[in-house]
Amino acid sequence: MKSVIQLVILILALAGGAFAQFEPGEPTSSEIYSFSGVQSSPGKYVLPLQQVTGNSFVLNGSSRSYSSLLLTISFDYAGEADPVNGNNIVGGSWNLSVYANGDYVGSVFGEVREGRISWYGPSGGKQRFFGATRGTSAVLAVTGGTGNFEGQPLREDIYYKSSTNLDNEATETTVEHLNL
Length: 180
Fold this sequence. Notes:
The protein is mostly beta strands. 8% of the residues lie in helices and 53% in strands. It is built from one helix and nine strands; from the N terminus they run H-E-E-E-E-E-E-E-E-E. It has one helix at 2-16; strands at residues 33-41, 44-46, 51-62, 68-78, 87-100, 103-120, 133-145, 158-165, 170-176. The chain has an eight-stranded antiparallel beta barrel with strand order 1-3-4-5-6-7-8-9. The two termini are 23 Å apart.
């Protein structure tokens, strides 16, 4: 039943097309992880696929349980960047490296299942110009882990939301349902 509710929420978010409308519900863990970082690659438009591949970000965070979290994520999205209508995320990959007291604990990794990219101007309109931000919401599926996370049961889907300033590519991100 929980999966059906999450699917309905995702469909509503994609249909609405607005970054602010993506509300996956309450996290099942007591923490919502926050990250900040930069876009490391804008990606490349691949004509035969008619999509942008490799739009990548490197993000740092921490939590009460772990001293350092390094999230790398790469999105593939349909069509060329479309500031007016936005873009549907059609794939990608991600990796979360986890450190406790400076020591590597392990990694959790997976695929980007689906999501949405929207652009917002300083006044809130969907435009791409100076002062604009890009909102990204996505569902990340866990496919495996290493170190302390190797052989652990696969977790439920993870919800990723970010806001990227298009002027300096700084990104603020929250990740819900991580359950480390």
